[in-house]
Fold this sequence. Notes:
Elements: H1 7-12, H2 17-47, H3 52-83, H4 97-125, H5 131-136, H6 143-192, H7 197-217, H8 221-244
Helix pairs in contact: 2-3, 3-6, 4-7, 4-8, 6-7, 6-8, 7-8
Amino acid sequence: MDAAPSTEARGQGLWSWRDILGMSGSSIAVLLAGSLAVGWGMRSAQAAGRARELVLLLGTMAIVFLEVAALLGSVYLLGLRRRGLSWRVLGLVWPSLEWVASAMVIGIAGLFLTSAMAGLVQRLMGRTTDPQAEALAPIGFSWTAGLGMFLLVGLAVPFAEEVFFRGVLFRWLRDRWGVRAALVISTLIFGLVHGDPPTIAAGWTLGFILALVYERSGSLWTPVLIHAVNNSAKVILLYLMLRLR
Length: 245
């Protein structure tokens, strides 16, 4: 098994304020500009008489793809490549088999825990609809939509978000203010970027687990696997319920 990121690298502090602002600002700018472009494209397509469901599905998938591209592209171009670093410094080293097995169990447990937190907030708000489910299945059941969301939300998004939020942000916070502060602050930020209150609550719950596991396992692949299990299971269960209606 490859070794975890060295304590020497941790002590020196891998990222500077400039690095973090550059990667964060670039990710936000790309996502905002891309979202505006996608919105314009969707309106143009609908005005041209394209099928509404197809336009909505492609637009939703494009936004998710933009998030993945913005996060990974910013980390690579403005972080790793600019500094002459490899992906390994983020913790992309293989975990032990025990951690792989633990990640599978934690991923399933996290699914129930995050769903419970989101459901509780929904009930407190008096909501009868689930905005996250609507975002994951914008046109209802479709094999194409289900496969696309599984690949994007279930697999690509977990990798991209773990690279940025744990491999970069948590790592930077930990190097400066210690593990406890990094756990709290990175978890708060990870939850808040999800926007909607029920999803924020779920994000806080999952984010804390992911950061803690990253710190304990020394491998970024461990939280990636947990995140992927959590997201993939949500997508599969949602489309299975829609198919059985």
